[in-house]
Amino acid sequence: MKVIVVGGGAAGMSAASRVRKLLPQSEVKVFEESSYVSYAPCGLPYFVENLVQDINDLVTYTPEFFRKERKIDVSTNTKVTKVDLKAKELTRISNEGEKTESFDYLILATGAIPFVPDKKWLEVNHVYVLRHLEDGEKLRKDLQGLKNVAVIGGGYVGLEMAEALSKINKNVTVFEMKRLMPNLDPDYSQLIRQEMEKKSIRVVEGFTVRALENIGDKVRVVGDSEQPIFDAAVLGIGVKPNVELARSMGLKIGETGAIWVDENMRTSDPSVYAAGDNVEVNDLVIKGRKRYAPFAPEANKEGYVAGSNIGNQNIKFPGSVGSSITKFYDIEIGVVGISEEEAKKHGIDVFPVKIKHNAKASYYPPPEEVYMKVIFDKKRRVPIGAQVIGKNVWGRLAYLSLAIENEITVDKMFFSGVPYAPPFAPVWDSLIIASRIFYERV
What sign results for the dihedral spanned by CA atoms 81, 125, 55, 115? Predict the structure, then answer.
């Protein structure tokens, strides 16, 4: 059997490794269009700010490791341009020219690409996007000698890039079409804005970027009300699934714009699987709906599931609640499930609970706070979404993610064994207080 994986990121290498383990006699090949495989693009902002010194530290395993230790034939700088499903053949292009490969099974792990409103923006000098490690290398090198930088987009990527640029002493302005961190409630969004302004980062909300253009060696950001000029601009508007190859193959594209797959990660063609940031999965909050969840944990597990099923193990990927976390300097920001606004759009009768509480015992220095909003489904008495900002967010978000995923009722939440010690949490943790408020009032 011959299995070809298109894409050498988290999902692709997880899938290839699983196939190799389960089918040791099979031929496994990976084609990756960049120079690296098994790398961590989420670490690129930390490379830009010099927290990560060497770009190779963002590489988990090298192509040589996979070739030698796992007997997987990895080809980098190789792009798959065409797939003939009827003939089970694909065309790939590399420095060696164009070649044709046959396959029995194909796994698409083409990932996501940065969302760019106008492709002409990418032709403007000193305008950058971050997708591959090479993008981070170029940005860090080019930033030397530049001072004033615009960040287009105020979501996760924009926030992380703003911090990275601020830490290397750039003058940073963030432009956001809606409000900063638009997946947060307005008052929580304002908390983030206040923290950014404390770090001398200018935030311009409600600003639609109409164009980016060069004025000499500078970049002009063209908006409706102003047209400020910068030394460089970094696009952090978000990502979209890379489905160009899948679409050309005639595979089904789902409701979110990503590749449709079943729970075995099989596409609409039985010989083709897909995994990672190019697919949509079941939404575990709103049943019957699909969710686009371009996050590394999901990608790794989806690749594992795809490879397992090709290896004759019937494993299903249940779906995602969209748990995600980031930070800005010392403040941590976590989101999971759906917002109150989205819940109401779907006709769900909700009971939102908002809390500002100590992140640990009040007497344990230094004082730290956590802001938490939990969205409860009144009828089913279960949490369906949450936003957590402040200190010690990861553990609380993990708890809420499991509660939402497993439909744990508010009664069980209240009596759950949340651990306590003064350095880590107050006796009445915000998680328990949220469930107690629902418990008493609904």
Answer: negative
Q: 354-392, pLDDT tens digit by residue?
A: 999 999 999 999 999 999 999 999 999 999 999 999 999
List of E strands, 238-344: 239-241, 272-274, 281-282, 290-291, 324-328, 331-337
Q: Active-site residue numbers? A: 42
Cβ burial of 56 (10 Å; 0-12, 13-18, 19+) is exposed
Q: What is the pTM of this model?
A: 0.95
Of 207, 237, 267, the last residue of a domain is 237
Residue 296 belongs to domain with CATH number: 3.50.50.60
The interaxial angle of helices 296-310 and 10-22, nearest 10 deg, is: 30
3-state SS class at 134: helix
Residue 15 sits in which domain range?
2-41+59-113+240-310
- Helix, coil or strand: residue 42: helix
Distance from C-alpha of 108 to C-alpha of 312, rounded to nearest angstrom: 18
433 and 332 part of one domain: yes
What torsion do the CA atoms of 151, 279, 273, 6 make, to the nearest 10 degrees?
-10
Question: Residue 225's pLDDT is what?
Answer: 87
Distance, CA of 268 to CA of 90 (rounded, Å): 18
Q: In what order do the strands lie in the sheet with 105-108?
A: 73-75, 27-31, 2-6, 105-108, 272-274
* Residue 53 covered by a domain: no
Q: Work out how many domains the chain is built from and give that number.
A: 3
Look-up of token digits 């070649």: 99
Of 179, 210, 237, which residue constitutes the final position of a domain? Answer: 237
Q: Do 228 and 218 touch, CB atoms closer than 8 A?
A: no
Whether 244 maps to a domain, the answer reads yes
